[in-house]
## 1
Amino acid sequence: MSDSLTHSAAAAAAPRPGPGRRLVVHGLGLAIFAAMPAIAAAAGDPFVVSLFTRFLIYAIAAVALDLVMGYGALISFGHAAFFGLGGYVVGIIAHHAAETGTIFGLATSNSALVVWPVAIGLSALLALIIGALSLRTQGVQFIMITLAFGQMVYFMLVSLEVYGGDDGLLIMERNTLPGLDLSDPTVFYYLCLAVLACWLLLCRRLVGSRFGMVLRGLKQNERRAVNLGFAPLPHRLAAFVISGAGTGLAGVLWANYALYVSPDMAAWSKSGEFMSIVILGGVGTLFGPVIGAAVFLGLEQLLAIWTEHWMLVMGPVLVAVVLFARRGLYGFLVGERSHD
Amino acid sequence: MSTLLIEQILNGLQYGAMLFLLASGLTLIFGIMGVINLTHGSFYMVGAFCAAYAATATGSFAAAVLAALVGAGLYGLVMELVVIRRLYARDHLDQVLATFGMILFTNELVSVVFGRTPPFMDIPSFLTGTVALLPGLSYPVVRLAFILVGAVVAVGLWLLITRTRIGMLIRAGADDRAMVDALGVDIRRLFSLVFALGAVLCGLAGVMTAPLLAVEIGMGERILITTFVVIVVGGVGSVRGAAVGALIVGMIDSLGRAYIPITLYELLPPEIASTLAAGLVSASIYVAMAAILLVRPRGLLPARG
C-alpha cells in the first residue's frame, strides 16, 4: 500500500519515462476530439458534433464524480443533484430574463461570465451542505444518504410549478461570451472541449498536490492518515465541494447545449449513469471517465439505432464490464498500473 | 380531525407493512453477504406485473398471488445464480454498477414480456367495500387486509429468524460470515435461500400494491429508494431496524401527506403554500432521514459489528 503511495507521489512529481502507451492513448484521444468537427463536416453529418458535445459534457461530470469516488473512496449516489442545480440556475435566470427582466429585484444578465459563476457557486454551496451532513456517515450509509439528498433535490425541482414542474423549462438562447458565438455548434463544441481540458488539468494538479495525497492516504488507510495528523473531514468535504462545483459546471453546459432543463437532470438514474460512466472508464483515473462517457453514450446511441429495446443489451454490457474488465476501459487500454 | 388522524395512521401502517416486506429482504441480503442490491425493487415490479397479468388472465386473486410469489422468487433465484453470486467478493462500487445494469435489463425485459401499457388489477371481490371501524370512520377492507398480511409476515419472519436453526445461521452469518463458513455451513447456499426469500417477499409486496397503485415500469426504483431510506433510518443489516424504519417512514409519509398541506395553507399565502407543500410532502421522508442520521449516523437500531 505504502508502495503505491510513493509510486503515485513519484508519478505526480515528475512525468515517468517509460511506457508510451499512455501517451499514445491520451494523444489519440485528444486528436480525435480536436478533429471531430472537421471529420463530421467532411462526412457531412453535423449530428456527430452534437453527439460529441454530449460526450464532453458528461465527461466533465464524470471526472468530477471520480474526484470523490476514485480518489476519496466516497461513493456519492446523488451527484445528479449538482448537475440539475447547475442547469436550473441557467434555466431560471433565462426564464426571468424572458418574463420580467429581473430576478428577485436584480437585473438579469445573459452573460456566461455572470450566470455561470453564480450557477457553479450555488452548486458548490449545495455540495457543502450535502457533504457536511453526508460525511457524518461512511460506507453504505454514505451511498444511501447521498442518494436521498439527490432525491430531495429532484422532488424540489418537480414541485417548482412556476418553472415547469415535471415538464421542465425551455431556454430561449445560449448564454453569451464576448468574442464567441456560442449558438454555433462547432464553437460551442470547442468551448466544451476547452472547459474539459482545463477541468482535467485542474483535477490533475489537485490529485497530485499535498491535498490529493492526503485524500488518497485517507482512502487507503484512514487510521494511518489520522495518526499522521491529517483530519479526514475537511479534506473530504473540500473534495466533495470541488466535485459538486465541477458537476454543476457540467449542468450549466448541458442547459446551454440542450436549451432545456428538466427534473430528470437530477434524477437518481442520472447519478447511476454518471457512476456507470466512471466505473466503465476506470475508477481512480482522470482520463478513464472521459473514455467512459464516450463509450457509454456512444453505445447507447448505437444500440438505440439498432433496436428499440437497447436497454436489454446495455444492462448486461454493464454487468459484463464489471465482471470481466475490472480496471475499466482505461486500464484495459493503458495496461499495468493505470493510475494517472 | 381525529377520524382523519386515525385514517392516516392506518394508511401509514399499511404503507409501512409493505415497506417492511421490501426492507427486511434487502437488509438481510446486505447484512449477510454485504451486497448492495439495487435490483431488489425490480423483483417487486416483476411481482406486481405477474400478479396483474395472472389476475387479468384467470380472474382469480389466488392465481395472482401465486404468480407474483413464484415469478418474483424465480427471477430472484436466477439473478442470484447468474449475477449476484459473482459480486460477493467485489467492492460496493462494482455491485452498484452491475445491479444498476440489471435494473435497465429488467425494466426492458418486463416491457417486452408484458407490453408497454400497464396492466390493471381489480381489487378482489371479497376485499371490496369498507368496514365501519368507529362511528364516522369507515375504512377499505382491502387496506385492512394488507395491514394484517404485513403484520403476519413480520411475526413469521421474526419467528423464522429468532426461533429456527435457519434463522440462527442467518443471524450468525450477518454477524460473522467467515465464522459460519468455518463451522461447515454452506454460506453460499444459505445466501441463495435468503436472496430468494427476499425476492418472494418483494413479490408479496407487489401483489399488495397492484390493486391500489399503478403497475408500471420504473415502480421498482421509486420504492427502492424509499426502502433505502427505511434501512438507513432503522440501521443497516438489522431486521428489527427494518421494522422500526418501515413504520416510521410509513407514518411520516402518510401523516405528512395529510397534515403538511393543511398546516402550510394556514400559515402562508395559498400560491406559496401549494408549491412548498408538494415539495415538502415528497421530500418529508428524506428530511426525516437526514435529521435521524445527524443524531445517530448508523441508524436507530444498527446491527452489531
Note: Residues 2-33 of chain B form the longest helix (32 residues).
## 2
Amino acid sequence: MSDPIGGEVPQQKADVVADAINRLLTELSVKCAKEEGVRDYFHVAVVGYGATVGSAFAGSLAGRDIVPLSEVADNPARVDERSKKVPDGAGGLVETVVNFPLWMDPVAHGGTPMNRALQYAESLVAAWTERYPASFPPIVINLTDGESTDGDPTTAAEAITAHATADGAALLFNLHVSAAGGTPTAFPDTADGLPDSYAQTLFAMSSPLPSHMRSYAASQGQRVSETTRGFVYNADITTVVQFLDIGTRATELR
Amino acid sequence: MGSATGPQRQFPSGADYAEALQHTQLCFQHPELKGARPELTKLGLPRAISGAFASVFSLTSPSSGQRYAIKCFTRHVPDQERRYQAISSRLAQLDPAELSQPWNIGFEYLPDAISVGRDRYPVLKMEWVEAVTLSSWLDDNHTHRFAVDRLADRFEALTRDLATHEIAHGDLQHGNLLVASDDTLRLVDYDGMYVPALAGMGGTERGHRNYQSPMRGNDDFGATLDRFSAWVIFLSLKAIASDPTLWHRLHEPSGEFLLLTEDDFKTSGGSTRLQTLLAHPDRTVSGLADHVRSLAFQPLDVLPPLAIAVPRQRAAATTASAVSGGRTVAAPDTGALPGWMAGHVSPQATSTPTAPSVTAPEGFHTRTLLDVATAVLWPLMLVATVLMFVAGFSAPPIGPGVPVLVAIALTAFARGRRAERAQSRAALAELTNELAQLDDPVKAAEKLRKDQAKFDAAEAKRAADYLRAQGKLTARYHAELKEVEKRKVRKQRDIDKKIDGLAEELRRALAKALTDKQSAYVRDQLGRRLIAQAPPHGIGPKLAARLAAKGIRTAADFTGYRSVQNTQYNSTGAVLVLSSGRVVDVHGIGEAKAIALDVWRRDLVAAAEARQPRALDASERQSIEQGVANRRVQLTAQRKAVESETDASRAKVRKQMEDDQKRLTRENTFAGDQARQQRQEFSRRAVALQQNSALHGTLSASVEAAKLRQRGLSFACYLRFLYIGR
C-alpha cells in the first residue's frame, strides 16, 4: 500500500484510498443533506486492514462499526486545510485554501489481510441483514492493492454475498489500485484484458451491478451490459469517487 | 477516466460545489454573487440542501444584502436552459391578482455562472423563501384542525391555479410545498415543471415515488402530471384535519411521505396504512381514501383534476337542498354515493348522466271547443237541476241529480280527451321504464362492496400464502443445507480418523517389515544348514537320508518334534513337525534323536538370531513411508472430493430453491397481474356506479316530478282549468 500509483501527481496508494474514502464521506454527507440536516439514508462502516483489521474511523468515532450518516457528517476526526490552485477568472491560477474533512488516515504498513477484512465485513453484513431484512442490501466496497496476504479471498467474498435482504443479495464491489500498470478499467463485463491474476480474482469476486445502478452508470456515460460487474481497475481518483458514488446510490433520494 | 466517456456532460458533485463555494470571490463573476457569503455548517463548509439532480446553497449578496437560494446542478438535464426560459416566461405572465395565493417564486437561470475546476456551469438564482416544508409545518400544526383544513383548501386552490393555466409541477410533495408564516403555500423546485410551451418534450424526472401513480411512466409529461399527487396530498390534509391523531399513527418521524407511501398505492389490498384510512369512521376520510385507491389503477390522463372538485362541492351543497326542477345531483346518503363524493366524482362521471328524454306537461293549457262546451254545460245543468226541483220532477227514474251526473260524465269525457293526460301517462311510463332498466345503485354498491371485500380477503390470503410458501421454501432449503453439511461432516470425520491413524499404521508397518526381514534371515540361515553335511550328534548318514526322504534336509524344514505314546508297546516315540505344520514319523528317530535334532536346530536359530539385521535399510523404509504417504494423498483427495461433492450438493439444493423461488415469484407475479386487472375492473365498476347512481337519482326525481304533475291533471284541477284557464 505504500507503492505509488500512476496519475498526474504520483501519490501513494494508501493516500489515494484514504482520500477517496474521505471524499466519499463528504460527498455522501452533502448528497443526503436536507433542510433540517443530514438524513440517515445510509449507515456507514469503514474497516481498515493492515497491521490490524477493524474500524478505521479516527477521532470521536474511533472504534465504532456501523454509524448513521448524520453522526458521521457531524463528527470528522478533523478538518484539514488543503491548498489548491483554482482559476482566477482572468485566465490564471490562484492558490487557495479549502477545508477538507477527514475521518480516517492512510494505513500503509503491515500486510494486506484481505481475508480477515472480508470476514470482518461479513460479520457486519450478517448482523445488518438480520436486523433490517426489508432494507436495501448492504454494499461492501473493497478498496485494495489486490495482493491478499492471507490466502485466497474468494470464499470470504462469497460469504458476504450469501447474505440477502428482501431487495436482493448483499453487494461486493472491488476497487483495485495496482502498481502493475495496464489500461485503467471501470465496470468491465469480462476478465479478459485484466493485467494480472489478482485483478482477475477481484473481478470474479465482484457482484454484477443491479439494474438501477446499471442505468445510473449508463446515464453517466459508462458502457454497461447485463454482466457488468462492480469492479474498477487503476482508474484515477475521479473515477474512484465516481465509482463509489454509483456503488452507494442505493435509492433515488426523492 | 476509464471508459467514462459518454456523450453527456459530466457535472460536478454536491461536494465539488461545496468546495468551490468556499471562495465565491473566485467562482462567481455575477455582480450580486461575487463574494457572496454562504451559509456554513458547523464544520465550516457551505451548507447544502440536496435532491437527486441538484444541491441548493444559501448565499447572501454583499452588494444588495439580498439572500438567495443558488441551485447547482449535479446531473445533466436535457434542454435545461430552454426549459427554464419557458417556465420563467410562463410564470412571469401570471397575474398575481388572479392567483389564489402568491405561490410562485422568482428565479433566474444563469448559464456558465459558477466555475468548478476548469469549467463553468449554470446555476439557478432563486429568491430565498422564509417558509417551512409542508411536512415540518404538519409536525408543528397537525393538531390545529381548522388550520389544516384551511391549508387543504388552499392546496386545492393552488392546484386550480395550475390547472387553469395548464401548468403541472411534476413533483408535488411535502418537500416542494412550503408554508409561509401567513399559512399560504409556496411552490418550489421547478425542474420538472410542464408549461404548454414545453409540449412534446419528454419528462426529466418521475417525481417523488411516494406521491406518484403506479401508472406514471418515464415519458409522461403534460398538464395532467400532478393529478394523482394532488389527490394524495389533499386526502392526507383532509384526513389530518378530520383526525389529527392520524399524523402520529401513519406518518413516521422524518418519513419521506405524509400518510401514504408508494407501497400503499401498489398493494392497496394489503397496506395497513391505506386500510386505516379506508376503515376510518369519518366518511370524508374513508371516501377520499377509497377514491385515491381507485385512481391508482387508472391511466394518468383520465384522472379527475382535484381543482374542479372545489366549486362543485360547494354548488352541490346549495342545490341539493332546493330540489325543484327535477334535475339534481344524486340525493345524499342514498347508500350508493357518499355525500362527500357529490363534488368529487370524475368530470365524465358527473357529466354523462343523460337527462330524461321526455318531460311531463305541467297542468292544462289552451282550452279547446270541447272544454268551452263543458264549461258552458255546467251552469246550464245546475240551472236545469234547480228548475227540475221547482217543477217537482223528483221521482225516479229522472231524479234531480241527473243533469249533474250528465255534467260530470261529460267533464270526465272532456278531461279524457285532453292531450296532457296522455302525454303525462306516456312520460311517466317511459320514466318508470327507464328507471326499471337501471340497476338499483344501492344494491349495485352493496354488491361492489361485497365483491371488493371478497377480493381483498382473497388477496390478503394470497399474500399470506405466498409468504408462507416462501417461508416453507426457505425452511426446506435450510434443512437440506443442514443435511448436506451433516453428511459432509460425517464423511470427513471418517476420513480424518483414517488420516489420524496413518502414523500408527506407519509404525506398525515398519515393525512388521523388520520382523519379516529378521525371520526371513533366520529361515535363510537355517535353510543353509544341511543335516547331511553337519549332522547333529547321533544322526548318521543313513538317518540323514531317511530324513531327507521325508523332506527334512535342512534345519529350516522342521520346527520341532512331538512325543508320541505308543500304548501298544508302552514306549515313547517321537514325530517331527514340518515347517508346513504336518507331522512325519521317520523310521529310526525316537524321542532321544528327536530331542537331539531339536537342540541342534535351536542352537542354529539362536546363532542366526544373534546375527539377524537390527533395522530396515533406507530404501525399504522409504518404500513403506512412500506407501503411507500415498495413502495420505489418497485420503486427502477423498476429503477434498467430499468438499466438492458437498459444494455440488449445496449448489443443487440452492438451484432447487432458486427454481422453486422463481416459480413462486412467477406465479405471484401472474396472480399480481390478475389482481391488478381485477382492481382496474373494480375502479371501472366504481366509476360506472357513480354515473349510474347519478342517473338513477335524476330519473327517480323525474318520476317523482312526473307523478306530482300528474296530480296536477286531476278532475278538480280540470274543473279549475275550465273556468280559470290554469
Note: The longest strand of chain B covers residues 107-116.
## 3
Amino acid sequence: MFTIVEKRILNDSMTLMAVEAPYIAKKAKAGQFIILRVNEFGERIPLTVADYDREKGTITIIYQKVGKTTLMLDQLNVGDAILDFIGPLGKATELGGYKNVAVIGGGAGCAIAYPQAKALHGMGAKVDMIAGFRNQDIIILEDEMKAVSDHLILTTDDGSNGNKGFVTDALRKNIEDGANYDLVIAIGPLVMMRAVCNLTKEYNIKTLISMNPIMIDGTGMCGGCRLTVGGKTKFACVDGPDFDGHEVDFDEAIKRSRTYSESEKEATREYNCRLMEGAKNA
Amino acid sequence: MPNMSKVKTPMPEQDPNVRNKNFEEVSLGYTEEMAAEEAKRCLNCKNKPCVSGCPVGVRIPEFISCVASGDMENAYRIIKTTNSLPAVCGRVCPQESQCEQKCVRGIKGEPVGIGRLERYVADWHMKHGGAETFEGKPNGHKVAVIGAGPAGLTCAGDLAALGYSVTVFEALHTAGGVLMYGIPQFRLPKEIVQKEIDGLRDKGVDIQTDMVMGKVLSVDELFEMGYEAVFIGTGAGLPSFMNIPGEELVGTYSANEFLTRVNLMKAYLDEYDTPIIRPKNVAVVGGGNVAMDAARTAKRLGAENVYIVYRRAEEQMPARKEEIHHAKEEGILFNLLRNPVAIHGDENGRVRSIECIEMELGEPDASGRRKPVPKEGSNFEIPVDCVVMAIGNSPNPLIRSTTEGLEANRKGCIVVDEATMATTREGVYAAGDAVSGAATVILAMGGGKEAARSIDQYIRSKADKAK
C-alpha cells in the first residue's frame, strides 16, 4: 500500500498528490512514469512522475480528472493509500548537452513538461517555457514553471489571461525573433504535439515528445502501447515514453488512443452518477 | 487386483455448449471412486519409467499406490517432496509428452492418468488438509528471487524448506506470473494458484509485488542489501508480432495483452473496470496452447466465429492434443495451412478483415517440422473485428540490460550452465522461460528446483570457506 502524504487541488480538473514510495523515489528521473491501480477492481493507468523527493521518499503525480480511474483516485485524501504504485518505468529523458531549449506544455501536459524544464534548468541550459491552457481558470504550476525557466509564456485558447493563442503561435514567434533552440520538448495532447512537431520540422529543430498510450504492465509484456516510430514498431513503456516527434506516426497513435473511448465514457458516466447518488444520500 | 482397462477413467467435463459461455473450469475432476479406479491401473513398475519423464521427478508410483489405498494425505506429502505446485501441474502439464508418455500401460492402450490423479490429490488436500508446516530451520542466509512465476516460486519454496530467508520480487500486482496472467480461469482457476502462493507465504517466503526489478532495484543492489544469491525467473514476456501491415490497427492484440486483460485484470467480470473489445469475429494467429487459450477466451466473451489461423497442419501444432480437442468441441474453427499476410482496417483504424494466404508443406526446417510454403495467388480475406497474435514470446530484456556481466544469447535468453543453472555472473542463477524461451510450466519448475539446489551448495561452500 502506498500512502498519500500530500493532496493539492490545482484547479477544477487537476490535482497534485505526493505518494510515499521510497524505492521508486530513490531511482526516479525526469521523463519516467509510474503505473497505479487505485483498488482491486480498478484499471492500471500510467502517470508521469511530476516530481520526486529522494529524502522524503515520495513521488509526486499530477492527474486530470478525465475518466473513472482518476475520479476514483480523486476520492482519496491524505492518509489514504493507493493499492498499487509501480515504477519508475520507461527511460529517463536524455537532457545532457543542450544549451538552449524550448519546453512546451499543453494543459495537464505541463505537469510532465515541468520536471523536464526543472532538470534542464538545473543543468545550466537556457530554458524558455511555453504553456498553453484552454482558459485562465485552469492554469497550473505557474510559479513552479516560472522558477525553472528563463522566460515563461502563458497562452490561453480564449485569451482570458490576456494572451490569446496556441503554443505553436508563441513558439513560432520566438523562433522568428531569433531564439536559437537546439531542442524543443513538447508534452500535451496528441494533436498539440503533432502541431508543434509540424512547426519544428519546418525549422529543422530536434523535438522530443512524451507519449502516453494505453498500456497494462509497463514492462514490455503486453505490447498494447506500441507505436510506429520511423517506420518501426516501438513500445512506449520500454523504448519511451520519449520519442523523436518528427518520427512518430501521430495519425495512428490518435486512432489507437481511442480504442476504449466508448467503454471509458460509459464507465465514467456510471461512476459520476454513483458519486452524485452518494452526495445526495450523505 | 490391478484395473486392466485399456482406457483411462474418463474425466467428467462441462458440456461444450455450456462451458463455452462461462469461465468455470472445463474439467470437473475425479470423484474419490474414479480416482481409486484409475489409481488401480498403475502396475507399480520397479523401474518407474514415468518418473524419468517428469522434469521434477515426482515419485509417481508411490503416490498413486497411496491413492489406491485411500491414503490421500500421504499421497499429497509424497508429491510435495518434489513438486511445490501439484494442483497447477495436475492441470496444465503436458503429461502426454512427459510422465504419461513413458507409462508402460500406454504401450497397449492409454497410459495411467497421472496428471488427473495428481490433480485429485492436490484438490483433496486443499479441501481436507490442514496448513502446511514450515520444516526448515532458519539458517541465517538471504536469497532474492526475481519473478513470482513457476520457476521463481519453485526455487523460493525449495530454498525456504532448506531454511533460507527468501524474498520474491514480482513486477505485477499479483504473484503467479503466467499462471495468473496467461492461463485462463477455465483451465486453471486462479483461486488454486492463489492457494499455492498462500502456502509459500505460510512457509515464510516474503513475496513483494509491484517491484519491477532492473528498474526499482538492480541485481547489484540486491547483493548490497545482503542477499547472498539471486535467482532470475523473469519469464518470456515480450510478445512477438508478425510485422505485417495492419498490426497497429485497433482490435489487434498480442495474446499477452488479450489474456492479461481477461485473466489478471478480470475483464470478463462486470465489477472490474478493465476494458476489452468484445469481438464478434476473431482470428487468433498461432497453433500453441496460448493460441487455444486466446481462442477459447474470445468465444467465452461472446464471439460468434473464432478462427485459429495456423500456417502448418494440425499434426504440427505445438498445442496439447487435449487443448485442441477442447477447442474444437467448443466450436473454434480451424484454418490450417493458412498464414496472415495483412490486416485490413476501416476508416476509423479498426480491424475489418484479415488477409491470409494458403500454405503447403515443403522440406523439414530447422525445427524438424515441414516448412510451410505459401501458394502464390491463393490470398483470401476473413472478415473479423479482432486479431490476436499468439505466435510466441521472447525473454523480457529489462534485467539483462541493467545487470553487468549477465550474458544472453542471440535470442535474448540468459546463458546458464545447464547442470547448475548458474549464469555468467557469480551468485546469480536463472531458469524458466528467461533461459529457455517460451516453454512449459513444469520445465520452468524443474529449472527452479535445480537452481535452488545449486544456490544452496554455493552459499554453503562460501560459508565453509569463510570459516
Note: The CA atoms of residues 175 and 181 of chain A lie 8 Å apart.
## 4
Amino acid sequence: MLLSGSGKGQPGAVPGWVGYALLPVLNLVAAFVLSGLVILVIGENPVDVLSLLLSEALGYPEAIGYTLYYTTDFIFTGLAVAIAFHCGLFNIGGEGQAYLGGLGAGLVALALTGWPWPVVAVLAVLASALFGAAWAFIPAWLQAKRGSHIVITTIMFNFIAASIMTWLLVDVLIRPGSQSPETREFDPGVWLPSMDRALGWFGITIPASPLNLSFLWALACCLLFHVFLRRTRWGYELRTVGRNERAAVYAGISPSRNIIIAMLISGALAGFVGVNEILGVQHRVILNFTGGVGFVGIAVALMGRNHPVGIILAALLFGVLAQGGGQLSFEYPTINRELVMVIQGLVILFAGAMENLFKPQVEALFRRRGGAAADATTGGRG
Amino acid sequence: MEDALLLALQLLGATIRVATPLVLAAFAGMYCERAGVVDIGLEGKMLAGAFFSAAVASATLNPWLGLLAGIAAGVALAMVHGFACVTHNGNQVVSGMAINILVAGLAPTLAYAWFHQGGQTPLLPNQARIPAVQLPGVEALAGVPVLGPVYRELFDANNILIWVTLVLVIATHWVLYRSRFGLRLRAVGENPAAVDTAGLSVAKLRYQALLVTGVLTGMAGSYLSTGHGAGFVRDMTAGKGYLALAALIFGKWRPGPTLFACLLFAFTDAVQVRLQGVVLPGIGVIPVQFIQMLPYVLTVLLLAGFVGKAVAPKASGIPYVKER
C-alpha cells in the first residue's frame, strides 16, 4: 500500500509531500468540518468556537505553555505506541502504564523528602519507567509465551490499573485525615522545576504555566527513540520482527524476546507521563490524572507515521485540542469538556483510519495535471 | 436450604440480566469478526445505542421508537466502521478506537446540550421503558417447592429484550452453521480471495455482517438505558464492549462457548455486587476495588490459561485488496 506513488514517472505517481503533508491536512480539514457540524447541532457557531479554540491554545505565551505541557504527555504516549507498532504490536495499554508510571514517580517523591530535586528527578524517571514497563511486561509475556491477544490483555490491564490505583489512593496512600483520595503534597524541594523557573535561572522570563523540564526529556526521548530504532542492532531486530515474524525467525531473531523488549520500552515511555503530571504539575498522586492520554497516543503515533518528528507534530496538534478545547467550556456554557473528545475521535477516525480517503481523488488530480504537463513538454504534435 | 436456593436463584437471575447486553455485544462482534472485520468499537456503538434510545424514548415517551433510534445509531456507526475499514482499507483497530472516543465525547455533549442535566438524559417514566414480560401462573406455582421459586426468579418479569436475545443466540447458531449467508460469512473471514473468486462481493458480505453488528450493539445499548436502566448516564457501558470482545475471543468465535463466557463474566459481576462489604472468614473484607476488577482479572487469566493461542478467523483484521 505504501508502494503506490513511489515509482517516479508511473501513472498515478504523486510527489512525496502529498502523502506526508497534503493528505493528512485534507483529513484534518474533514475532521474539523464534521466537528463544526456537531457544534452547529448543539447550537453554537462553529467558526467562532474553533477560532476561540485556536487562540486559547496558541494565541498568547501562557497558552502556548499549557499547550506544550499537554504536548509532552502526548509525545510520551505517542512514542510508546509507535515503538510497539514497529514490532507489530498494538499497545492499547498506554493509559494503565502511564497511571502506574505516575505511581512510581510519586512514591519516589514521597520517600525522598529533603533530597535535592535533580537526584529525585532522575530516580523518579527511573521509577516511572520501571513501573510502566512492569505493567506492560505481563501482557507482553502473555502475548509472547501464551499467545494471549495483546489488544485485549492491555485493555484489561487498563481497567485493572484503574482499580488498583483507586484502592491505593482510597485505602493506602491517602493523606491522613483527608476525604479526597490523593496522597499528601510532595515537599516543594523535590518538584520538577517548571519551565518558567528553569529559564529564570538563565535570566529569561516567560509566563508561568505547567510546562516543565519533562518537555525536554520528551524531546530527548524522541532522539533516543530514533537512534535506538535506526542505529542499533536491537532496533533492527525489533523492526524485523514487526515487518515479518517468520523472516525474523529464519534470521535467528527471537520474536518473543523482541515482543517483550518492545513492550518494556513502550511501557517505560508511557510511564514518563507520570513524571510530567505527578512530579511536574500535580505534585501529589491523584485519581485519573491520565485522562485518556494513552488512547490519544495511538492517534499521535498513527498521524506521526511512527516517526519521532511526525509524533512531535501530531502531539502538538492534540496538545492544541486539549488546551484550546478545555478552555471552551469557560466561554460557552453549552459546551463541556467532552467536546474535545468528539474532535479527537473525528481526527483519529479521519487521519488514522481513513487516511486513504482522499488518495484516489488526489492521485487522479495529479495524473491529470501530470498528463497535461507531459503534453506541454513534448510540445504537442504541431 | 430454602434461603440458599433463593440466593442462588437471585444470583442466577442477576446473571441473566447482566449477561444480556454482553451477549448481544459479543454476538454482534461475532458476525463482523467471522466476516473478517475486527471491531473494538462495540463499546462505542453500545454507548451510542444507549444514549439515542434514552433520548428518543424520553422525548416521545415511546420505548419502541427509542429502541429503533438505538439500533439506527448502532447501524450508522457500523457503517462508518465499514466505510473506513472495508471501503478504504483503513486500520480496523484504529477505526474502532476512534468510534469509542468519538461516542464517549458525543453522547455527553449532546445530552448536555439537549437535556441540560449534566450529560444525562432525564429519568425515564415506566411507560417509556421497554417492558418486562409477565408470565402467567406465577401465583399458582408459588407454593410448589423449587419449581415455584425457579419460575419466579429466573423466568418471570424478564425484559422482552432478554427473550429476544435468547432467540437471537439460537438463530445465530443456525445462521452461522446452517445458512448460505453464514457459510459465506465464515468463508469471507477465512479466505476472502476464495470468496472473491467464487464471484461474491467481499465488501458486500462484510457490510452485511456489519449491519447485523450495528443492530445488535444498538439493542444492547437500548437494553442498558431503556430496559434494564431508566435513562442514559455518562459512561454507562463501563467497559462492557471490551468485555464482550474478550468473551468472544474466549469463546473462540463460536456461539455456544461465547454465550458461556458471557454468562461467566456476568456471574462474576453478580457475585461481586454480593461480595461487597461481606466479611470472608480468614480474609476479612476484600476492598471493593478488588472485587470490581474480578471480571477483568478473570479475562486475563482465561486468555492466558484456558484459551492459549486464540485462533481468530484467518482474515480477521486484514483489509481485503483485490488483486489487480
Note: The CA atoms of residues 193 and 255 of chain A lie 41 Å apart.
